[in-house]
Structures are given as structure tokens and as C-alpha cells.
TrEMBL record:
Pfam family, one: PRC
Keywords: CBS domain
Species per Swiss-Prot/TrEMBL record: Intrasporangium calvum (strain ATCC 23552 / DSM 43043 / JCM 3097 / NBRC 12989 / NCIMB 10167 / NRRL B-3866 / 7 KIP)
InterPro entries: CBS_dom, CBS_dom_sf, Mg_transptr_MgtE_intracell_dom, MgtE_N_sf, MgtE_transporter, PRC-brl_dom, PRC_barrel-like_sf, SH3_actinomycetes
Record-given protein name: MgtE intracellular region
Single GO MF descriptor: magnesium ion transmembrane transporter activity
PROSITE patterns listed in its UniProt record: CBS
Domain CBS: 368-426
Organism placement in taxonomy: Bacteria, Bacillati, Actinomycetota, Actinomycetes, Micrococcales
GO CC annotations on file: membrane
Amino acid sequence: MSASTRVFVARLTGLSVFDPLGDQVGRVRDVVVVFSHARPDPRVIGLVVEVPGRRRVFLPMTRVTSIDAGAVITTGLVNMRRFEQRTNETLVAAELFDRTVTVTSREAEAAGFGQGIVEDIAIEQSPRRDWYAVKVFVRQTEVGSSASRAMSRLTRRRSGKTMLVEIRDVVGLHDEAPAQSAERLLETYDDLKVADLAEVIHDLNPKRRAEVAAALDDDRLADILEELPEDDQVEIIAGLDNERAADVLEAMEPDDAADLLADLPPEQAERLLQLMEPDEAAPLRRLLSYDEKTAGGMMTTEPVILGPEATIAEALAMVRREELAPALATMVYVCRPPLEAPTGRYLGLVHIQRLLREPPHASVGSIIDKEMEPLPAGASLERVTRTLATYNLVSLPVVDDNGRLLGAVTVDDVLDHILPEDWREERHELEVRP
């Protein structure tokens, strides 16, 4: 590998990592550097690599034999232990991109280029084969109108002068940063599924987590909150202003939103409920009235509900909705009007497999399964679990004393309550091989 090898981190992230035999090991997600007072150029100590199973591991630069435009080649020895950032380490994409810095070079002063935003950082291998961060690509801080800035965000085409400068001429790169954008960070992880992005956000420091939350739209943030540990959920919601926190709660699944509200101080939870739309807050108040480990406390209030006269075609259209969770899409609940929980009298259920075997024009009322007994809202976690396992189901109806459908409890809701509380943090540790 040539001593003059230079690579920009934004282009490095996403590259495939291969062993010497050509087998893919994973994909680069970030670069780890260490700042030192003894040297102006931060030393690159390794890469964060995403391996199969969406686990992020640490690959030391001493085990990187080649980097080119299309791939990273390693010695083949990769420690599969989950990456944990140390206090003296800095993640380039996660923490340095979008940081506001001051450029002090003569060229910058002559061009009237003072403050700017870090868009990329170049790393380079020295003659001794060590890697260092040597250059910073900086875009001048935008001074245009709010409309032009909004258009730049929409089109992802940024305006303003740019410069590639020596890293030693950049002030503020390693200082405690004020409020920082997360736009570039989110672009880096744009291909991740919600659960995997949630894990990335969990690994960030609290300040950076708050900045990422601020950059996400309400629906995306709601999806991510549902995948985060309880402590992270509470931290992020507490860091939002009340109006936005209420909007995000409205976008969450009702059962997840109710669980989050239950973890907040009662007075804060009540403030947020009062800021929500009444028809959005009402189901959450009902859920909060049940014990957490009962069918009522675990259920969602938004299953697929149809009247008996609805056709098979209508039912299939309902379960095909992209936003519907897979577990909820397996079952249609048939009730008398009103068709929103709590409904009129519960009549029975129809499994999606039965829908697929019937003519589209037939009514769902003609194929109702009335043998499956619904659960009362007070049914224990053990009873719910046993019923799901006994009948090989992934969801069950929950009714009140008058036989009205209140909601449905799904297998993922049950798993959330029977797995250890820290399962989200430890889920990849179970896959580590010696």
C-alpha cells in the first residue's frame, strides 16, 4: 500500500470489507480517531465495521492491508466483540461531521472564509504505515434565507464556498461543541432499518443523541423510540419541547406510547396528554389504566377492525397497508359498529390465510372464527403467553366485560415483557463467537 494513500471518510463509509480470500467480512460504518496534544494530526486507530447480524465491531488499522475506491482488505482476523467507544476515542462521521469550526489558514483569511461546517475529513497513511486525519473539507456557514436553507436540505445540495484545509488549521474540531447538526450523520446511516439505526443512536453520547432526535421528523423519531431502551426513550422525550414531544407520542404505536408515558413523572405525562389531540390521548389514558403486565396493558388499540358486511377484498386491502405491523396484519377482527376501539359487540376473527382462500366478493362475516375465545383486559402475562403458544397465534383479541373489542395483544408485545429489561442492549452479545 502506497505511503501517499489518502481516503475521505464520507467515501469510506459504506465500503465493503473483505478478507484476503475475497470473502466479505462486513461494511465500514465509521472511523475512530484519537486526538493528542503531542501531534496536531489525530491518529486513526481503526474502523467501525458492520458485520452480518447488524453487529458493529472494531477493526484496528493494523489489520487493514489495503484501501481503494471499492473495498477495504483486511488480514482476515476480526474480533467479533461488539464495538464500545472509549472515552478518548472520537467517531468521525458520528461526532465530527456537521461540526462548526474556525479555519485559520492564510488562504482562508484571504478568501474571507472564517467559520464553516465540517463536511468530510481525509485520512492518510504515513511512511511508517500509521494512519492520520490530515485534511478537513469545510463548507462556509450558510448565511442565506431560511427558504434557501430549507431547499438545500430538501435537495441535499448545499450552498456556500468550500475549502480543503490542513487539519492543523482548523480550530474547534475537538473542543466541546455547541449545538451541532446531524444531517451528515443521518445520511451516512440512510440505508439502515429502524431497529439498527436505533442501536447506532443508543451508542451515541447524550448530547449527540439529542441532536439526532432534533434532526429526525416526527414519524421517523417515533419509530426509533419504539426500538430504544426505556432510559433512552425517557431521555430523548425529556429533551424535546412539550409540543413536539406530544406530536411524537401521537405518531407512536399506542401501546409503546403508553409504556413511555408510564416511565415519565406523572405530572409530565399528564402535561403531554393534555397537549395531544383528544382522540389520540383517549386510547393512551385507557392503556395507562391497566396493569403493565396484563392483556390490557400490553395491547394495541389499533388492530384491523371490520364490520361483518365488509368484503374479503376490503379486508386484504386493509392488511396490505405498509404501515401495519406484521403481527397485526395476520388477523382481522370482526365487530358491530362502531369500528374503533372500544367497538360494538365483538363477533370473531378471521386469519389472513383464510382470507387468501376465499373469493374476493364474499363477506368476512361469512367466514368468522368464533371458537377462539377473546382475552379479558385483566388477563395475566402468563395466560396471554400460554394462549398464543397453545394455538400458534401471533395476536389475540382483548375485550371488556360487555364483549366490546378493546384492542389486540401481539407476540412482540409479549416478548418485550418476558425478555430481560436490557435485551435491546445485549441482543448482539449472544451472537459473539470465540
